[in-house]
Amino acid sequence: MELMEQIIARAKQNKQRIVLPEGTEERTLKAADRVLTDGVADLIIIGNKSEIEGLAAQWGLKNISKATIIDPENNPKKDYYANLLFELRKNKGMTIEEAQQKVLDPLYLGCLIIKNGDADGQLAGARNTTGNVLRPALQIIKTAPGISVVSGAFIMITNTPQYGENGIMVFADCAVTPVPDADQLAQIAVASAGTATAVAGFAEPRVAMLSFSTKGSAKHEVVDKVTTALAKAKELAPTLKIDGELQADAAIVPSVGASKAPGSEIAGKANVLVFPNLEVGNIAYKLVQRIGNAQAIGPILQGIARPVNDLSRGCSVDDVYKMIAVTSNQAMAAKKA
Fold this sequence. Notes:
Elements: H1 3-13, E1 17-20, H2 26-38, E2 42-46, H3 49-58, E3 68-70, H4 78-89, H5 96-102, H6 106-115, E4 121-124, H7 130-141, E5 151-157, E6 168-172, H8 182-198, E7 206-210, H9 221-236, E8 241-246, H10 248-252, H11 254-260, E9 272-274, H12 278-291, E10 295-302, E11 308-310, H13 317-336
Parallel strand pairs: 1-2, 1-4, 2-3, 4-11, 6-9, 7-8, 7-9
Antiparallel strand pairs: 5-6, 5-10
């Protein structure tokens, strides 16, 4: 079974409640219909019920009626959620009047539904920017315990089974934090190992902290940041299999790893690659995707206490469908944490 099929199968076996705030967006609604038809997740769609039903009829979608549809304007729990938001944000200066306005915003409402335990995860971004998707998530759901930074991982499905986990690897951070400091880099490493387990299904994440140096072969402050991050990651997750600093070839090629980092249990065997900054990570995943003809699943947002994922505004119906399944897998893992 291919990885994406495994992700979908796990979602079907333990259906999660996923919120779709962009309920009248065409690709989102078409993907929702497929998800409901296939039994991948239970969906909460936010938007005007008549408009959603009209669009479903227009596009020939037969199963949207299986979703829970919540209209922000006519939501019977509108005052309840406004009070919840006010309590969460009053110390930041939010007034009850501002909270009453915010609960009309589907992105805020979706996060409040999750915060209240009425849903398990959220997927948006087909119509909204990353900033708009992340802002309410960080204000309402907040980051996971021990984590203060959000990052974005990609699961790379390559045509080179000799590397990673039969050709599958996790790359991070490729999407969110431009220049992480050592603390943040350590958190990204730990979160990426979690994604490797929860979504990619790795039995044993093996994390490599990448640099242009391997075990002191070069001296520079950016190398020092990686080695400091390694020590901090070991403190955060003492049982995690992790090593660094490693060059990319030393991390994934057994012969190079044995030569450049003898004695390392990660060198030459890594299946999770943590890049020193966003610039490197983003360039790397796109090169592997295009030149290597690899599949890239993501970005999968990491570090939020309950999963909130961000779509590209250029996404396809298939992308939305797959990311609902990914979000469901993350939600299952979050409940176990």
